[in-house]
From TrEMBL:
It is a multi-pass membrane protein. The keyword ATP-binding does not apply. Residues 9-387 form the Major facilitator superfamily (MFS) profile domain. It comes from Pelosinus fermentans B4. InterPro entries: MFS, MFS_dom, MFS_Exporter, MFS_trans_sf, MFS_YfcJ. SUPFAM superfamilies: MFS general substrate transporter (SSF103473). This is Major facilitator superfamily MFS_1. One of its GO terms (cellular component) is plasma membrane. Keywords: Membrane, Transmembrane, Transmembrane helix, Transport.
Length: 397
């Protein structure tokens, strides 16, 4: 792989995921608002509508990983793009006038479940294809570009979704979300198939894979709670406080995320993931603390920016080390299992945050994120104190 073609491939990956992931990003801050303001249902159901897509993602991760490893990583993510389109159209049907709140909510849940399947197939298939095409030596760069594109999409998609919702309604957001995945299909339709690795040794079971990476996975789970509550409730939090610039909060999160990936994206490959994750979690903790205690919207916005800066590098830092532990023929399954830990955070944090918001306040949801980030620091510190480098060759599968 030449240096020029590497840059071209990573650029194509970034552009395609950025544009395609707008399908997810535009809907994320709008779903809970739609459930609360249009369907007049409680916050916890808004959280369920946000989180249920990640339950579907969790349940389909093993299938997606096996599909990418044994059949076709390209077909895996192309199917994911298709599910994105269908899911948005189903969600759009939830806004049909004349439907009862319960029927609309049920339709919305079906659409969000389909979105979760698309999320699983896309975010397992596309990095797996690039691991095969570019080689695992570039796994850190691949994961950094992937995450930068995804959260860059949140930086743009959040305010775009809220603006469309404000002026044209929920159905306009879903219509736009159904169109943008077509870009990903067009960009990769002519890309070559890359044959999966042939099994050279007995594969370990999926659950044994999970046990071998649980510390790295739990770090990602605890990191993801802060992002999940921010994505689901920052708009409602700002509205409840009477603050302006709710959409800017999501943008600042995304900007912080992208800046961190640009400046520090190569660090996990150079110095290892544990050190990078520790510093990142400290920054996220400060950001969540500011959101929780902010007396003014400016400090809350700063908290959103710091949360993005902190969250950014934790996933690739842990992911690079996980990839090093896994034999080539199981990288898709292992990556799917690793990503599943983050899905757990996204699936359950929003519903739990909704319960917290109903019983206490929207600001209390960020206390939840603060505590989770502190828990992540404790786990990462234990890796350092016990001197257990996760790239130990003795643990290679």
């Amino acid at each position: 792989m030449s240096k020029i073609s590497l840059k071209q491939s990573l650029s194509k990956l970034g552009i395609a995921i950025f544009l395609t992931y707008l399908s997810v990003a535009m809907a994320l801050p709008v779903v809970s608002v739609f459930v609360k303001e249009v369907l007049n249902l409680p916050n916890w159901l808004g959280g369920v509508a946000v989180g249920v897509s990640f339950v579907a993602t969790i349940l389909s991760r093993k299938y997606a990983g096996d599909f990418a490893d044994t059949k076709s990583s390209k077909k895996c993510f192309m199917i994911g793009f298709f599910f994105y389109m269908v899911a948005a159209l189903v969600c759009m049907a939830a806004s049909i006038t004349g439907l009862s709140a319960s029927v609309s909510f049920t339709i919305l849940i079906v659409g969000r479940l389909l979105l979760g399947i698309g999320e699983s197939m896309t975010t397992v298939g596309i990095p797996s294809w690039h691991f095969l095409y570019l080689g695992p030596v570039h796994s850190g760069k691949i994961l950094a570009v992937l995450g930068m594109a995804m959260y860059g999409a949140f930086a743009l998609g959040g305010p775009v979704g809220l603006t469309l919702y404000r002026y044209f309604g929920f159905d306009s957001v879903m219509l736009a979300s159904s169109i943008v995945p077509i870009i990903g299909v067009i960009m990769f339709v002519t890309s070559p198939e890359v044959a999966p690795h042939k099994a050279l040794e007995a594969k370990k079971s999926f659950f044994k894979l999970l046990r071998s990476i649980w510390k790295q996975g739990m770090t990602v789970t605890l990191q993801g709670i802060g992002f999940a509550v921010l994505g689901a409730f920052i708009s409602l939090y700002f509205k409840d406080q009477g603050w302006p610039y709710a959409g800017i909060g999501l943008s600042l999160f995304g900007i912080g995320f992208v800046i961190s990936r640009i400046l520090f994206g190569t660090l996990p490959d150079k110095i290892g993931g544990v050190k990078v994750a520790l510093v990142s979690l400290v920054v996220e903790t400060v950001g969540q603390g500011l959101l929780w205690l902010a007396p003014h919207y400016s400090l809350a916005l700063l908290g959103a920016l710091l949360t993005g800066l902190g969250c950014s590098m934790i996933y690739p830092a842990m992911g690079v080390e996980v990839i090093k532990r896994i034999s080539p023929e199981q990288r898709g399954a292992a990556f799917g299992g690793f990503a599943m830990f983050q899905d757990v955070a996204y699936a359950f944090s929003a519903p739990i945050g909704g319960v917290i918001a109903d019983k206490f306040s929207y600001s209390s949801t960020f206390l939840f994120g603060f505590i989770a980030a502190v828990g992540g620091i404790i786990i990462v510190r234990s890796m350092m104190i016990k001197n257990l480098p996760i790239n130990n060759t003795d643990s290679t599968l």
